[in-house]
Amino acid sequence: VQLAESGGGSVQVGGSLKLSCTYSELAFRNREIGWFRQSPGKERKLVARISTSGTINYADFVKGRFTISQDNAKNTVYLQLNTLTTEDTATYYCAANSWPGGTFHYWGQGTQVTVSS
Fold this sequence. Notes:
Distance between the termini: 38 Å
Low-confidence stretches: none
Structural class: mainly beta
Strand content: over 45%
Number of strands: 11
Order of helices and strands: EEEEEEEEEEE
Radius of gyration: 13 Å
């Protein structure tokens, strides 16, 4: 199983980015794809997750600003980042599990998002 993130970059405060996570064909039919982020010296945190059936959960710190979506035909999950702040600066990773609520075992390499004032 392979996952690859893209779409990171540098933006100013208040700006937007759209991240993409493209994954290889997954054998498990009811998986979740999650977006995580990690800043230097901090723990990796779940940002949002989406199941094959479209069930979505967001971390409280991004509700109303970030939107997760998917195109199952393209094996791609997106994360739209809006109203970015310097606190959103981090490496963003996507990951997959084998069933809803399961451990995320499969990880991409990450894409850097830098927000400057």
